[in-house]
């Protein structure tokens, strides 16, 4: 019969398995936290919606920011670009804009509400910026949300973009010829909705809208034809579009009614001395 090697208590160590148990507990105490730490380090960072962060920073809801973006796209993008990077010779870039970053919300809101005439010394593009983007129907809350949306376009750590291509000589700014019927209903609607591309006096803007003053195209059309043309616009894919620039329906202002369009046609006729 073989001798037994079963551990037996001794005076020095009454529990022969205690040392092993303590060592095992120590191993678990060190290994399990290390495994947990490794899992945490390899786990991807949770996605946080940037608009949620902006909303918290600005104290507005994501719905307000969404409304601001939609309003911008519908009322401002024609001049400032769909992505707010600007349209040369028209509207300056508003993404990563030193101007936006250097003005308060109240100042930006006031500018949108009032617009900026080419004769204003602060107007460095020579282009007319219509009050409320030419949309008198826009409520103040929507315009405030546009300001909030513009804030989301300012990327931290990104330097302001250059606006050199948008600056014109001071003598050229505000040089649009005054209209013979300036102040008429048609002139006001034309300036608000059409002048950004066609000029304050219908003289045209190179690379954007053709001249309407003394235009053979205008002379060949009836009033009804012109009104229908302004009402529907002319997309860039239209074979008759020779500028390669989209002409939005109603000058990009869906709030214009038939009476407004008729006044625009009347004003355009006045540019021909009719």
Q: Which helices and strands, and how do they pair?
A:
Elements: H1 18-42, H2 50-58, H3 62-75, H4 77-80, H5 98-101, H6 105-114, H7 140-152, H8 185-193, H9 195-198, H10 216-220, H11 223-232, H12 258-270
Helix pairs in contact: 3-7, 6-7, 8-12, 11-12
The dominant shape is: elongated
Determine the mean pLDDT.
80
Residue runs with pLDDT of under 50 for 5 or more positions? 171-181
Structural class: mainly alpha
CATH superfamily of the domain at 52-153: Cytochrome c-like domain
Report, as a whole number of angstroms, the end-to-end distance: 131 Å
In DSSP terms (H or I, runs of 4 or more residues), the helix count works out at 12
Strand content: under 5%
What is the share of helical residues?
40-55%
CATH class of the domain at 52-153: Mainly Alpha
CATH fold node name of the domain at 52-153: Cytochrome Bc1 Complex, Chain D, domain 2
Largest sheet: none
């Amino acid at each position: 019969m073989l001798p037994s090697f079963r551990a037996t208590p001794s005076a020095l160590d009454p529990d022969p398995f205690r040392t092993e148990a303590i060592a095992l507990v120590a191993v678990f105490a060190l290994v399990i936290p290390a495994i947990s730490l490794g899992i945490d380090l390899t786990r991807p960072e949770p996605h946080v919606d940037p608009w949620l962060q902006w909303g918290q920073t600005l104290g507005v809801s994501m719905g307000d920011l969404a409304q601001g973006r939609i309003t911008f796209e519908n009322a401002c993008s024609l001049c400032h670009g769909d992505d707010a990077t600007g349209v040369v010779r028209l509207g300056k870039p508003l993404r990563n804009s030193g101007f936006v970053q250097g003005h308060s919300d109240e100042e930006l809101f006031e500018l949108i509400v009032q617009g900026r005439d080419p004769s204003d010394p602060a107007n460095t593009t020579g282009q007319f910026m219509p009050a409320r983007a030419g949309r008198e129907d826009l409520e103040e809350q929507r315009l405030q949300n546009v300001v909030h949306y513009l804030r989301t376009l300012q990327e931290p750590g990104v330097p302001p973009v250059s606006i050199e291509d948008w600056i014109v000589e001071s003598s050229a700014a505000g040089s649009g010829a005054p209209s013979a019927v300036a102040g008429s209903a048609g002139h006001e609607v034309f300036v608000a909705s059409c002048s950004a591309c066609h000029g304050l006096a219908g003289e045209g803007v190179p690379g954007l809208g053709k001249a309407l003053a003394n235009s053979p195209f205008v002379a060949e059309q009836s009033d009804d034809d012109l009104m229908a043309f302004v009402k529907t616009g002319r997309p860039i894919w239209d074979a008759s579009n020779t500028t390669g620039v989209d002409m939005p329906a109603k000058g990009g202002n869906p709030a214009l009614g038939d009476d407004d369009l008729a006044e625009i046609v009347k004003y355009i006729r006045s540019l021909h001395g009719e």
